[in-house]
Amino acid sequence: KAGVTQTPRYLIKTRGQQVTLSCSPISGHRSVSWYQQTPGQGLQFLFEYFSETQRNKGNFPGRFSGRQFSNSRSEMNVSTLELGDSALYLCASSTTGVGNTIYFGEGSWLTVV
Amino acid sequence: SQKIEQNSEALNIQEGKTATLTCNYTNYSPAYLQWYRQDPGRGPVFLLLIRENEKEKRKERLKVTFDTTLKQSLFHITASQPADSATYLCALRVINNNDMRFGAGTRLTVKP
After folding, report:
1. Nearest to B102 among A31, A43, A50 (CB)
2. Which 8-state DSSP code applies to residue A52?
3. How many CA atoms lie within 13 A of A109 on its CB side?
4. What is the distance in angstroms between the Cα of A9 and the nearest Cα belonging to chain B?
5. Residue A97 above 60 pLDDT?
6. Which residue among A35, A98, A103 sits closest to B46, beta carbon to beta carbon?
7. What is the pLDDT of residues B15-56, one digit of tens each?
């Protein structure tokens, strides 16, 4: 079956703009989580959604937000982009999200200039 | 403060040898620990999961141990091959929490 799909794969934005990233989980997976990966900070947890509800949230400012739709697809949004938001944004899905393997997508590379 | 530390940023070994990577954690009570492989420009790929009540898990050439007293996990790749060259990440899922916390990773290079 198809893996986790993230779009777009690459994008360049200007400081102050906003961006929306999309994630389609593996079919049947209801949990979607988002991570930010940078060389300096490594993989950091942003938030997790399950059945359209945010279950957990990492230590990121309110500029980072997300949502999940009834078909389990998820989007994350970053408003008022800063240079430091340049990173690889990874989406991961799992069946219940607790105690199960999570499967990552290939990520969306965001560059803020 | 809570920390997950992987023993080194980089590890170089000769083909055929056993690679051993370390993951130490502090101020966590993990329900389980996972190891992932990540190749440049790609998302992490799950390798092994070990629960808090398990001491050891094996999968082909991979072995993971979990010592909750020492707060440490060891990840071994036996008979290493150049194709094993990648960054390996450990991750904790804490009890009563749904997010995963990742270490910074160890970049393994296996030389022919």
Report:
1. A43
2. T
3. 8
4. 11
5. no
6. A103
7. 999 999 999 998 887 778 999 999 998 999 999 999 888 999
What is the DSSP code string of A62-108? TTEEEEE-TTS-EEEEE-S--GGG-EEEEEEEESSSSSS--EE---E
> For residues B21, B22, B23 and B24, what is the CA-based torsion angle, rounded to 10 degrees?
-170
Find, in chain B, the residue whose alpha carbon is nearest to that of A107: B43
> Does the distance separating the beta carbons of A104 and B43 come in below 8 Å?
yes
- The pLDDT tens digits of the residues spanning B54-87 come to 999 999 999 999 998 999 999 999 999 999 999 9
Maximum CA pair distance of chain A?
39
Q: A92: which chain B residues are within 8 Å (Cβ-Cβ)?
A: 43
Cross-chain residue pair A104–B103, CB shorter than 8 Å = no
- Asked if A66 and A12 touch (Cβ cutoff 8 Å), the reply is no
Interface of B to A at Cβ within 8 Å reads: 31-32, 34, 36, 41-46, 49, 89, 91, 93, 97-105
Q: What's the gap in Å between the CA of B23 and the closest CA on chain A? A: 15
Cα diameter, chain B: 44
CA distances from A90 to A55, A58, B100 (A): 18, 14, 13
